[in-house]
Amino acid sequence: MGFSRAKHLIMHVDSQVVPQRPFLKGLPLPEATNTFTPVAHEDFDNLVQQAISDAGIKIKQSEYGLSNTDSDGYQHKFFVAHDTVDEVTGGVNMVIGARSSTDKSFAAGLVFGQRVTICDNRAFSGEYVLRRKHTRHILRDLPKMIAAGMGTYFQQAELQAKLIESLKDEDVNRYCLHDTLIGAAERTIIPWADIPKIKSHFYEPTDGNKFEETGWGLHNAFTYHLTNKYTQGSSIDRSLRMSGLFRSTFAPELDREYEELKTQSEEDREELRALNAPWN
């Protein structure tokens, strides 16, 4: 099977995008050892989907990926991305992704964000990432990891909704545009040579649409440019840094809340690192 790609998944020569969740059912599972506990792909996805449902989050669309069958009959690697919407925080769209393996190639992981990249070459990126090795008590700890992720999901969605509202309320004049573009180049979000291109996207109709001359319109002009110029992984990395720039420029009052969320996220990861010891 050759290269295949979906909205959030990138599969290369040893993996493929699969069209439906039933492809996970009944896949063979290697035997556990004293230090390694494989988790069935379907069971992991069940845990994630149950947590999403319990939180009242709606899944709009899902993408699944599996590694190709090896000589022993196993499809060791599993990938999924769920496009979701949370009506509680104003209908903010977020992506919840997961991956796991049954051959120790990588830990079970969750990723959350407005944009994520999940690739079989180990790229696994978004605004919030959690991982848990397949050691002895992984089945005990996965629900805890997923619950921590769901809590962060709601905090992220709420802050993103606040940022979007702030951007929509801020008019962008030529001085603000100049400062934002210079800031983006100084932070290497864009090269200096791209400044005229983003100005053009902002002021002139793009694909038949004219962006509003607000912070939100400028944000969309940046997003359009990054998505169309860069690879998926690179555009997401730049988009994450772009969000920091727009937050500090248009909604600095949200910086403290983002820092608190970042601190909590790191505490969650530290707790999981302790659980990743072989005896756990």
Order of strands, main sheet, comes to: 3-4-5-6-7-10
Looking at the structure, what is the overall shape?
elongated
Beta content comes to 15-25%
Instruction: Give a short account of the largest sheet.
Output: 6 strands, antiparallel
Total of helices: 7
Give start-end ranges of low-pLDDT stretches. Answer: none
Radius of gyration: 20 Å
Order of helices and strands: EEEHEEEEEEEHHHHHH
Q: What value does the average pLDDT take? A: 84
Alpha carbon gap, first and last residue: 37 Å
Topology, number of strands: 10
Helix content: 40-55%
Indicate the structural class: alpha+beta
What is this structure's SSE topology?
Elements: E1 4-5, E2 9-11, E3 15-18, H1 41-54, E4 58-67, E5 77-86, E6 92-101, E7 108-113, E8 117-119, E9 124-125, E10 128-132, H2 138-169, H3 174-186, H4 195-203, H5 215-229, H6 232-250, H7 255-275
Explained architecture:
The model has no long low-confidence stretch (mean pLDDT 84). The chain has helices at residues 41-54, 138-169, 174-186, 195-203, 215-229, 232-250, 255-275; strands at residues 4-5, 9-11, 15-18, 58-67, 77-86, 92-101, 108-113, 117-119, 124-125, 128-132. The chain is 44% helix and 20% strand. Helix 2 (138-169) runs antiparallel to helix 7 (255-275), helix 4 packs across helix 5 and helix 5 (215-229) packs antiparallel against helix 6. By secondary structure, the protein is α+β, with helices and mostly antiparallel strands. The longest helix has 32 residues, at 138-169. It has a 6-stranded antiparallel sheet.
